Amino acid sequence: MNNEQTFQSLRDHLRQTSLIEATAALAEWDERTGMPRGAADFRAEQVAHLRGLVHSRNTAPCLSEWLDQLVQWDEASDPHSDIGATVRLVRKDFEKQTKLPQRLVEAVASATVRGQGVWDAARKADDYSLFQPALDEMIGLQREVGQAIAEDGQSAYEALLNEYEPGARVAYLVDVFASLRSELVELIGEIQTSPRQVDDRLLKLAYPIDAQRKWSHVLAEAIGFDFQRGRLDETSHPFCTTLGPSDCRILTRYESNWLPTSIFGTLHEAGHGLYEQGLPADWYGLPPGAYASLGIHESQSRLWENLVGRSHAFWQHFAPQIRDTFPGQLADVSVDQLHAMFNRVEPSLIRVEADEATYNLHIIVRFELEQALMSGDLSTDDLPVAWADRYEQVIGIRPPSAADGVLQDVHWSAGLFGYFPTYTLGNLVSAQLFEAADESLGGVDQLTAKGEFEPLLTWLRTNIHAHGRKYSADELVQRATGKPLSARPLIKSLRDRYARVYDLS
């Protein structure tokens, strides 16, 4: 075959593999939304089988033969072109996947389905002992994965971290998080001693779930989520998954006595969905049609959730609609009240409901604990107490129960060790991207106040979404903003917002 024919064979192979991946994702989506719990064991077999098929295709000998030929092709010489990035990144993926035995891939897939079901039951029962065996199994499997794919000098944990954030280094994150923690603790201290405090009791009134569902659809559609190519459902722990280039599923959750859960959960997952819907559909299943990293993915969700959704301009636009939607609770609320209530800073137990100032402290706790779990320095026997101790030391509040402590996140049940740091990376990237977009568009807040979200979405699609995985996260940030990643924009954004709410000097 000539090079064009070989590349077409490669492309066809990868697209066909993506069909199996999407089918597995559909089974996993159903498992988290509507599957009867009694079906968990068989669903685990189904997903393990599908993930095993994907692995066998991703390690097929023909891939190596095609890549060996294509690496010499002039069309592949530009590493950031569609063809060049495909050859370069598929080669890298192939080399990593061949280090993993299919037995291990299938075992992880099976344990993930079973583990998430056990976690859900354990959290509802507030019983860590129900979940501990599943956690032990997953830690053992993920440790084996990390050791298998680790490159020179990498720990198993760092290898897992690179699955979500390619090129990330633990030592770098330790330094970044330490500096960020110092800045945040200082800011939180200023807020706590401010004479102006925020009363958010209105948000704790009874809010009908049906009205919240309708409101969530309004918000997601307003910022650009395409309901002809996606849908919004609900689950115990919100997430976003893509089942094809025109089938993006986002999930949120609703609390009858805490309105922010659905509002910001929806905006967060819709931000993920906007990224997925903005990736080049013609390249679905190949690197140019895939997301760059989870840090970049999180930057999209956190940008819409926080930098847009918690802005004064956002509520200037949506105040009339939220008053009409919840007239019995918010009929007389002002824009300033809404903005203040949605930006109240208070140390809390639950990460997904944390304010922006304290959120990254939740991530720091998880980052430290999961490293210790993977290295063996911390046993699952001691994990609940270690979690509570770290929360008390870092955030200043001690969980009264496992449900509000070690069982609050689904991630470890799904084997997502190394995932948590990408949330903070996403926060850093989101602020830097927003700052650049604000300058480019002549003021995002002015557009937001008028309900004009398309210019910002177009800017993100041009500078982030359209490039898929052709550039690394660091390269994308540098190209989009003209600067390397820095914590300065995030700290400035937080200080500017909270100065308005708390009248900081």
From TrEMBL:
Enzyme class of the recorded protein, top EC level: hydrolase
Pfam families, per the entry: Peptidase_M32
Cofactor(s) it depends on: Zn(2+)
Active site feature: 269
Keyword field: Carboxypeptidase, Hydrolase, Metal-binding, Metalloprotease, Protease, Zinc
Cofactor remark: Binds 1 zinc ion per subunit.
Enzyme Commission (EC) number: 3.4.17.19
CDD domains, per database record: M32_Taq
Reaction(s) this enzyme catalyzes, per UniProt: Release of a C-terminal amino acid with broad specificity, except for -Pro
Chain residues that bind Zn(2+): 268, 272, 298
Gene Ontology MF terms in the entry: metal ion binding; metallocarboxypeptidase activity
UniProt KW Protease keyword: yes
Gene Ontology biological process terms from the UniProt entry: proteolysis
Keyword Kinase: no
Family stated for the protein in its record: Belongs to the peptidase M32 family.
Function of the protein: Broad specificity carboxypetidase that releases amino acids sequentially from the C-terminus, including neutral, aromatic, polar and basic residues.
Name of the molecule in the record: Metal-dependent carboxypeptidase
